[in-house]
Amino acid sequence: MRIVVCVKQVLDPRGIAVNRKAEKIFINREEYILDPACKAALQVAAGIKAALTASNGATPPEIVALSIGPARADDALREAMGLGADRAILLADAAFEKADALVAATALAAAIRRIGPVDLILLGTRSLDTGSGEMASRLAETLDLPQVLEAVSIEAVPGRVTVVYRSGKSFFKTEVALPAVVSVVPEAFEAGLPDGWRLMDAYTRGVVATWGAADLGLANEDCRPMSAKKEDAVPPERQLGTKVRDSSEIITLLRRERLI
Amino acid sequence: MDLELSREHCALRKLVREFAEEEVRPAARRADRESRTPLEVIRKAADIGLMGVPFPREYGGLGAGEIGYCILMEELGRVDTSVATIVGAHIGIGAMALHLSGSHRLKEKYMPDLCAGRKIAAFALTESNAGSDAASIKLRATREGDSYMLDGQKMWITNGPIADVMSVLAITDPALGARGGATAFVVETAWEGFAVAKPEHKMGLHGSPTSAISFDNLRVPQENVLGQVGLGFVVFMQTLDIGRVSLGAATLGGAQAALQACLEWAKVREQFGRPIAHMQSIQFMVADMAAEIEALRSLVYRTAWLVDHDKPFIKEAGMCKLLGSEIASRCIDRAVQIHGALGYSRDYHIERGFRDARIAEIFEGTNEIQRILIAEQMFREVGVKIRP
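^ Those are the sequences you sent over. The predicted structure of the assembly is below.
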């Protein structure tokens, strides 16, 4: 069995300040982190690996971390190895510099085909930065695979997975034959810290394979984005609410709203 | 000249910082208030490999060297001095003595458990009449067949109540005394004859347990001798030499945390109609702290680099401990001043930092001893041997 986890490196939000009045975003510290949703996806992959290895004693599933991004995304992939990935592939090419979700999905799908037989593709539901939440669906469509979005629990048996997923305010349980694409809700999985030994190994002897557009058989037109960023928009400053002086006033307000 | 940390050391710092923020910080206040050792935090540190950071991979460590170890201590010192002290006594002196002087067989027996944090280490040197004058220890080890019988007491042992394995210095030849007649042993606290007194009530470091320990005819097999019989004092002094570097790193973390707290507070605290960050009196204090911290950081990591490259480091190590503890004390003192009454309140963490910082000027060789050691090295360079 082989699990591919698509991961993304994002700007650390703790280093960003938003000034709504000036409608500006300030980057105080330009530091990058592995997206928390991706950590959750890696956690799920490691859990499946542990369960399958323990239950049937067969060859343990291989976990491959895959990312598209600039050279610095190498750090995110090594952290992914610290979190359980057996190997890592970075899709880096000048042609991907302006990649939008379409180009990224095309490249990731081509990479997954190149990796060979893949049983399960895991992603975070949405990334911290662009947060479109489209990638799982785009990948599934490009690869012509079934998709389950917003998983809150995943159990794997050889050949299929049972997934509990969120849809609106409800939860559903479904079973999917593999191969399939599943996106996970980060809050549902408590992602731990990387294992120190694995992390040091990832840096001292780990290898991050780098594949370019040519390796993936992508032509120039495949790398042409359909969308481009025009400007940053900062949502308006939130209006202050009503100031309440004491508890009796709160009770009056709640009664008026028929909340108590 | 490359003064950048390597990529794996940067990754290690990120890991430790995340661990410190997510696991250490939430437990620190309660540990201080209730004088409770945060063992669950130590277990979590062990799970991800942090209890064996500097030691070689072949013995189960992370293989991150002294630089990696200083990163660990700086990041822990930034958040909770108690946890830094537990880890420091375990790695920096307890297991370090074994790492530096233990036979391959001894290391194979103990290091994997110590590196994985399955066992906790301590370092037992101090006695009631042997503090700065470490050479006047009295704990007796008498030869009996192929064993040694330990009889006597040690005091102020960090990790005393929680340690499974201890590096212990005892007198094997009273005629020769510490220099030539002292031997270092690896002792398991589960062995018969070992006892722990009740934990000491300290000004600070409430989360780090300290106690007197006693040996009542405790049998140590001969293979548990660390280094050579009679040369234990050297084993212990060499261990302390190296331990001073990482202790400096822990104080660096404490000083940095104090500065950070001042910056955050001065940004939001308004007096005379504006944030106090705009007051020159505050700016001067902050600038002095920042300058001292930067100098300390350079010293600590350069000394760690000397250790990792097998270059002489004893003088610099003493400086790390001396300057580090005094800079940290000055910084946290200024932090109390900048925070005003809030800095004096037990409801805020500055007060804990103030109490915790003071010990670094005392333990692992008082600062007076550090000055003597540094002067000794300085005079040696001009051909004068200082008489003890």
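The first strand of chain A starts at residue 2 and ends at 6. Chain A touches chain B at residues 75, 78-79, 82, 192-197, 199-200, 202-204 (CB under 8 Å).

Shout if you want it in another format.
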